[in-house]
Amino acid sequence: MVAWMDKVCGAVDGTVKSLSDEPPIDMSDPSKLKTGMSEWLGTKVAAVDRSISDLKGLENGPHPRSKELATAAQEGMGQIKVLLADTKSKLDSATDETQAVTAFTEMASKAGELEKAGAGVQRKFDETGLATAARKAPGCKGLQASPPTP
User: Fold this and answer.
1) Annotated region Disordered: where (predicted)?
2) pLDDT tens digits, one per residue of 32-65
3) Model confidence over 70-124: pLDDT tens digits?
């Protein structure tokens, strides 16, 4: 069970970590700004696709509610993918630097939605009775929400 949870968390955690890196963009060159941001988003969309594919392969896990958890994680990744792909689309159709920056700023302003998606998957660990296995799985450590402060 712990090994399976480790795979589930690994499929999510790698993508989440990849989203936290800064796009390697030369902000002083407007012509490269849009291209650089678009390429960065493209690599992130591909990473999310890999996560979703990995999670699909984990639906038949060792727990009666494995599919439920894997599907919830896929849905969370799907929300992230929609946000990234939408931003990339807006960016690619931007006709000037201001529109490009606006598209990226809108994405940044929706970071809270991504956190909610992650929290939803965390809740599913508890609901499916897999939280104990998640706590023991090394790949889940990066996903653990910090305990609420009293």
Assistant:
1) 130-150
2) 888 888 999 999 999 999 999 999 999 999 999 9
3) 999 999 899 889 999 999 999 999 998 888 888 888 888 887 777 777 788 888 8
CB atoms within 10 A of CB 34: 21
Dihedrals phi, psi of 112, to nearest 5 degrees = -60, -35
**Cβ–Cβ under 8 Å, residues 63 and 130:** yes
Cα–Cα dist 44/39, whole Å: 9
**Encoding tokens for residue 145?**
């929400």
| CB of 11 closer than 8 Å to CB of 75 | no
* Burial environment of residue 136 by CB neighbours within 10 A (0 to 12, 13 to 18, 19 or more): middle
Taking the C-alpha atoms of residue 121 and residue 28, their distance in angstroms, rounded to an integer, is: 39
Say what the alpha-carbon torsion angle 90, 39, 104, 80 is, to the nearest 10 degrees. Answer: 90
